[in-house]
Design goal:
The protein is mostly helical and 357 residues long. It has helices at 11-33, 38-49, 55-66, 81-104, 116-120, 122-140, 146-168, 177-202, 207-234, 237-240, 246-249, 255-263, 266-280, 298-311, 314-332, 340-354; strands spanning 109-110, 113-114. Bound molecules: farnesyl diphosphate and magnesium ion (MG).
Amino acid sequence: MAPTASTPSDLAETQAAIAAALERVEERFDHQLRSDLPPVSRLVNHIEHYRGKMLRPTLALVCGLAAPSSLRPSVSPFLSLDHITVAAVCEMIHMATLVHDDVLDEADTRRRGATINRLAGNEAAVILGDYLIASAYHLCSQLDSQKIALLVGHISMTLCAGELLQLSHRNDLSLDEPTYFEIVERKTASLIGLACRLGAQCSGADEATCARFDRFGARLGVAFQIQDDLLDLTGQQSTLGKPAGKDMEKGKLTLPMIHHLAAIMPGDRARSLLLLERACGIRIHRAGVPALPHKDTPGDAAAALRQALDGSGSIAHAIRTAERLVGEACSELTPIPESGAKSLLMMMAEAVVKRAF
Ligand code: FPP
Ligand code: MG
């Protein structure tokens, strides 16, 4: 396939090449979803408006530029139409998961705009999510490599399994760290790993190198979700573009809370459990443990819990864990030749745990 950009050697050139390629990804994305039916177009337009950080397509493209080709080691990688296609496929699958996730979370706002479920109801949101996932497979089938379609199908199943595992632990106040990581590795990290792998694969990298990029993305993906969960506890709606505190409201325990409940003394634990039950809107009767005063609202309970999480060092534990994972992700790239694209990947990895939205 013919190169679409000359091979960028330094950081600024790489950033310019990625910006140009992302425009092509957006065009491919928009073109693929186009419909002659106004009710479909309206919803698709809305999706295009709430396009976010484009993390997955950007990673696919930057990994594509960073990965050495096993077939032509002397030729520096360039971005082909296949890179643009896999980047669009990853973003489309991500969008499908968000549209469905907002139905599950009964979320009203995402990226400063109304969610599809708020705008058009749950039925339309479910079908629009299906339209997105079907479009992603349609786009995928335009690639020569059947292996990519297999991987995309496999990871889509993994995402759903992760979400189902999370659902089965809703309001489970004894959720442990291994199960939390199992959920996060599947529902978030698997697709980020895939985006990195596919970028490398489209550059002709060998399997060992593709697997290295996959591990880089998967480690980064877990760190990304931990940061997302931290922001849900500590962030502000004005910065996040979506309401904070949704996880607790929906009975989803995340790393800081799991650490807190495991680290504190039994007396404090009983109080935190009561607060958590109030924040989640559930009540599990425990003999000898008095209920909270009724004047405490779920919001009061959530605020008291946030203070308790700080006090037990659980916020700091989650931050340290995310930073450690970013370090592990970056170590995966050690054998990859130095380039502007590799530097950009390192910068993106650091930004994942520094972001405020
Ligand atoms: C956001 O997490 C959601 C995910 C990372 C995955 C959701 C996956 C599904 C709903 C399965 C459907 C899959 C397909 C292939 C259509 P979050 O709720 O922690 O983040 P948020 O704060 O951005 O909502
Ligand atoms: Mg959600």
